[in-house]
């Protein structure tokens, strides 16, 4: 199986999770992988860990307002530097099963242009359990799961991330561009493990508030799809009602968590609305 795979990881003070992530890249059964770290001037051991695993390292600090999401800029830069026939963007807190990259390349060889790599969550505490429940519901839901693995030629054709959209809307917009161009999307059987760590209520609220601050941009660009993307009651929850009933306590926490996240997102949206009017 030929064709280099370039894996792009945006980082900033990501040492807590990065080494475990890079270990799983190193242990991949696929032989030709380059790992590109696009860092935002980390002050922890991120760079030392990246050098240990022989990653290509680029420093890039996007000029965005404090509290907004800069990963799309870093991912685009990493993709520009990528030398692979295939590109994959992942986060520093993700861990890959051994045959994931080989499976994704195989799907592309069979005619798919991009590949969804389903995710599962694990971590410490009840909020991490709630995230595990949520991600399980989203498996095979095309309104939530987005392709992260691409033929490089396809990535170039769709133009990469729309950096003006910021958090949340950036990957949803990518999925829409694939559909508009008529590209064929596959899905691996292997599951990526997303390490939530010690997930706290504060982290949940802060992240969704940040996403909410940039939500308006996606709503303006794609008003129809944003209704589906941001509507609180999803078909995925209804489709998985038996699964939710099998985990009653975690489901109650999940419902509370999602309610708080929507409130945080709405608060961020209102904040951005008044910020735009200044």
Please give a handful of descriptors for the protein shown:
single chain; 278 residues; alpha/beta; Spore Coat Polysaccharide Biosynthesis Protein SpsA, Chain A; 7-stranded mixed beta sheet; globular
Largest sheet: spatial strand order: 3-2-1-4-8-6-9
- Beta-strand content bin: 15-25%
Radius of gyration: 18 Å
Mean pLDDT: 93
Quaternary structure state of the chains depicted: single chain
The secondary-structure element order is EHEHEHEEHEEHEHHEEHHHHH
Largest sheet data:
7 strands, mixed
CATH architecture of the domain at 5-198: Alpha-Beta Complex
Helix tally equals 12
CATH superfamily of the domain at 5-198: Spore Coat Polysaccharide Biosynthesis Protein SpsA, Chain A
State the low-pLDDT regions, or none: none
What distance lies between the first and last C-alpha atoms, to the nearest angstrom?
A: 55 Å
Bulk shape? globular
In the CATH scheme, the class of the domain at 5-198 would be Alpha Beta
Number of strands: 10
Summarize the structure.
The chain is α/β, with parallel strands linked by helices. Helices cover about 50% and strands about 15% of the residues. The protein has a domain of about 190 residues: Spore Coat Polysaccharide Biosynthesis Protein SpsA, Chain A, CATH 3.90.550.10.
Provide a descriptive summary of the structure in words.
The protein is α/β, with parallel strands linked by helices and 278 residues long. The protein has a domain at 5-198: Spore Coat Polysaccharide Biosynthesis Protein SpsA, Chain A (Alpha-Beta Complex), CATH 3.90.550.10. It has twelve helices and ten strands. It has helices at residues 15-26, 46-52, 71-81, 100-109, 126-138, 152-158, 169-181, 201-221, 223-230, 235-239, 241-245, 248-276, and strands at 5-11, 33-39, 56-59, 86-89, 94-95, 114-116, 119-124, 149-151, 185-187, 192-198. The strands form two sheets. The chain has a seven-stranded mixed β-sheet with strand order 3-2-1-4-8-6-9, sandwiched between helices. The protein has a three-stranded mixed β-sheet with strand order 5-10-7. β1 (5-11), α1 (15-26) and β2 form a beta-alpha-beta unit. α5 crosses α12 and α8 (201-221) runs antiparallel to α9. It starts with a strand and ends with a helix. The relative contact order is 0.14. The mean pLDDT is 93.
